[in-house]
Design goal:
Component of the transport system for branched-chain amino acids. The protein is mainly alpha-helical. It has 20 helices and no strands.
């Protein structure tokens, strides 16, 4: 029975890390560090739970379940639910939000800093065309994704990032203990860090990317299902450790920068400030290269994952190359709406999807405790959905809430424990789990 050699395992782990770690994974911990100040350690602990722990559990869930992808995993709840959840998740981390965000962040944080005074709409349009043209080139070669991301783009990204982090950490701009936390990080840094980890979308990506890891391992001639599962988990652990280290270092650099700068409006501007301080004009080039490569490799992974999934979902539909072109074209259009619009409407969707994803991951990992009963799965997910919809409504922009007249609905959240912290779904999910276990036991007795 063949298993991955250490060098092969590192290549697969590098590929997985490369798909996970985009520009959003840089800008959110940098912003968190600036806002958390001396509470950065507590905030980062929360961030690592949702930004690293959940993605790792998602990859592990797919590996342990031996499902052939997210559709197979989520269809354990029900076929219709599986199709709905799979499509929504892939469209969210794909052409609707995550892929367009990669292009807009690349432009906003990288190129825009180097081209002040240009027509921003035109410049973004031109940049997006080039960006997605390159992404499509790589995406149309899915069999080579291990080489392109794991052995080329990811090492290039880490080299660029290391230059910035080493310089910042060896000459800190301030003492973390003297930086006062601001906003929600002053009141509850851990819970705020937990919610900030949602923005990386990596728990969703963990469910989506797991099948790419499995396919890559199979291409390396590992065929035994149990060994594939073990190698998938091992690659996920290596990837998670590297992600955790970089998150911590970026958050620390962000916190230290408050000794010289006020908190920036977003993590992109914070990184730009830091890069310019240490390297002057060259800092802009370093940051632009780091962010663009980070976004490009994540985009390639997302397009590949979405394309291969939709081929499986609709076998009588378009071929993989057609899906790749469609997703690139749609992402190109949405990217030109601008970063603020993309972020504003992605947060509510994430507040809906994350609870469902967490429940699916945990029930999959603990499935042996209740025999992977569909009754337990269906009741738990069914009770989570209404609470997740309330979280979605509460996260909508104020204008959208007023237009939809959601105020009476949002009053319901005051009856949910932990709703003020963004976790109003937890108690309904636990109630659903309890009811599912009871009805499953009653069903077993009736059958006996």
């Amino acid at each position: 029975m063949k298993k991955l050699k250490f060098q092969e395992l590192l290549a697969v782990a590098s590929m997985l890390f490369g798909m996970f770690f985009g520009a959003g994974n840089l800008i959110f911990p940098a912003s968190m560090g600036q806002l958390a100040g001396r509470n950065v350690w507590v905030a980062t602990a929360g961030f690592l739970v949702t930004g690293v722990g959940l993605p790792l559990l998602g990859v592990a869930a797919l590996g342990i379940s031996r499902a052939d992808g997210l559709l197979g995993l989520s269809s354990r709840v029900g076929r219709k639910y599986g199709l709905f959840f799979t499509c929504l998740l892939y469209l969210t981390i794909g052409p609707f939000f995550a892929i367009p965000r990669c292009a807009t962040v690349s432009y906003t944080v990288g190129l825009q800093q180097l081209l002040p005074g240009v027509n921003e709409s035109l410049a973004l349009a031109v940049f997006s065309v080039v960006f997605f043209g390159v992404a499509l080139f790589f995406s149309l070669r899915p069999g080579e994704i291990l080489t392109w991301i794991g052995k080329v783009l990811n090492p290039l990204f880490l080299s660029c990032l290391a230059v910035l982090l080493v310089r910042a950490l060896t000459a800190p701009l301030g003492e973390i203990g003297q930086i006062a936390p601001t906003g929600a990080y002053a009141a509850d840094a851990f819970a705020t860090g937990l919610l900030e980890g949602y923005n990386t979308m990596d728990a969703l990506a963990g469910l989506a990317f797991g099948i790419i890891v499995v396919d890559a391992i199979r291409r390396l001639e590992v065929t035994e299902p149990g060994q594939i599962a073990r190698d998938t988990i091992r690659a996920g652990v290596f990837s998670a450790l590297l992600m955790a280290l970089i998150y911590l270092l970026v958050a620390v650099v962000g916190a230290q920068s408050r000794g010289m700068f006020e908190a920036a409006p977003n993590g992109g501007e914070a990184l730009a400030q830091i890069a310019r301080y240490y390297f002057g004009g060259a800092g802009g080039l370093i940051l632009a290269a780091t962010v663009t490569v980070a976004c490009l490799k994540t985009t390639v992974g997302l397009i590949t994952s979405c394309g291969e999934t939709f081929v499986r979902l609709f076998p009588a539909g378009p071929s993989y190359p057609v899906w790749a072109v469609v997703f690139c074209a749609l992402s190109l259009l949405l990217a030109n709406l601008g970063l603020d619009a993309i972020i504003a409407y992605s947060v509510p969707v994430l507040m809906f999807l994350y609870p469902l994803s967490i429940v699916l991951i945990l029930l999959t990992l603990g499935g042996k405790l209740f025999g992977n009963s569909r009754t337990v799965l269906a009741w738990t997910v069914g009770c989570t959905i209404p609470a997740a919809l309330l979280d979605l409504a509460g996260a909508l922009p104020a204008g959208a809430q007023d237009a939809l007249k959601l105020e009476p609905v949002l009053r319901l959240t005051q009856w949910l424990p932990l709703a003020d912290k963004g976790f109003g779904w937890v108690c309904p999910a636990l109630l659903g789990l309890a009811l599912g276990l009871v009805f499953d036991r009653l069903g077993q007795r009736k059958a006996a």
